[in-house]
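User: Please predict structures.

Assistant: First:
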Amino acid sequence: MGEADHTPLTLEEFEREWISAHDALDVLAPVLRRDIAAERLISRVKAGLFQAVAKHYMYAEFGKEPERATLIAVHPTFLAPDLLGMDQPFWTLGDFTFYGSAVNGLNIGAELRFFGVRFDPEGIRDMLPTNRVFRVSPMEAAAEADDPADTRRPPSNTALIKWRDLFMEAYGTTYNLGMAWSSAKGMFPNHKVTRKSVEELIPARPPGRPKNSPQSTG
């Protein structure tokens, strides 16, 4: 089945813990511009620093029945440079196709299709600073609070709670409210996210280190 490698992950672990390509960019938004974060993610997987895993995988050759599998590790070779375009479906759905050729040693015309790719959460955590301070200026906060012209609808409470859980899982105790607010606005660019809505979900001071949170290296 091409170069596919099965992983010991369960589907429950994959869906609960591993981070989608789209969410990975949101988590990194306070520290990296989206296009730079995308390039860094791909380069780190290609360097073998952490894994990317596809929820579904299909290997197809002309005239043969396609082979399918679930929870397949994405070989670094298959992460081609064209994935870096922010308009690629990889960054919204986690889907991409790799084509076989004489250059890469696969059968010419073979298609390796990966769907719902997610990243190892430990690898994402390793890209986060442990001691950087994020601040929101008083002018920015005032503009956000007093802007009656912003008529965008806020995200739903369910969506905000999902963001909160993802944010806390990624950052542990190494955040402040300004950083959290920036992350939430990055995750919901088409909605109005107020500082107050973030304050209601995120403690003003990080609590004692929660169970299973990343250990500080700084």
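Second:
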Amino acid sequence: MKKLWLVAAMAVAGTMVGCGGSSSGNNGAGETTTTPPPSTETPIPEMPSTGGESGTGFATFEAELATRTIAMSDIKTGGSRFPNFGPQSACENRDYVVAGPYAIQVAFNSDSAGDIDDLKYAAKVVAAAIDDQVAKFELSGSPYTDSITETPLAVCVSTLENGGTFEQGNYLTIEAGKDVSDQYSLAIHEATHGLFKVIAGVDSNGSPGAVKYLDEGKALFAANQEFVSSGDRWRQWFDAGNVNPLTIENFGDNGVDQSNPQYFDLYPFYHTVVRYFISEDGLGLGVQGFFQLVSVGGNRNDFEAAFNARDLGITYADLQSQARSFQEHTPAGDRLTPLI
């Protein structure tokens, strides 16, 4: 079977842009996305895996990383790739190294963040994460790898940032001081936001913007983070009058921004929706089919029409209105398939 990249007609933006999350601190240069707080359940090393109520992560990754050979440059002085806004600015003009086949540039945000060996190790973690993302999703030769080859990812390992962010222009931030598996997971999560933007063809100003719940959900899926595996938990969310995750197509919809206590509470639900789209027990798109749908309808203005054109047995409007039923129905007319 030919890969999606060989058969799908795609209007692709040449530069990744930020999405979903707070737009503060970037001088209006596009939105920023932020990873949720880490989970605590014992992880497993596959990406992506079946996940679970508390997420999985990559607890055994450190031992596996030790067996891998990843090209690494000597220290380079005064990196200037980092933009003068947001948490990335802390890495401006810091020493950096270049790692992996996609020449990822990695810097610490301060001289006290670690020595050169620490920097090289962080760079190895990030390069491994990107390599694994490309391999897992069969992205070699895709618009995504074209994008990060033309403008390599610049990764700021920051003592100032809680978690990770993806910002406009191929920049990632991951938090220093986290264990190796968390940094690996963060790098995959944030890089997947860039992947989503490239596939969706969202322009450099973030307009019309990617579908928020799909963008976050796909990043959570890639990084083995939490999803809702309990039908009771899923239904209780709706029965309590909480926000329908399928209505969060834009940052701030229904008042859901980072000032809203439900902002991160919704993340496992976004992930569950993406799993529903991909799973044979859901809409059955598979990963490549999901990417193909995103390639023609990943932005907010086009998604409903692109979804309906796929003739998946339910309209997008009905999918949204029947979202509570994801976990309890089987395919029959307008009824939906369970995930559990």
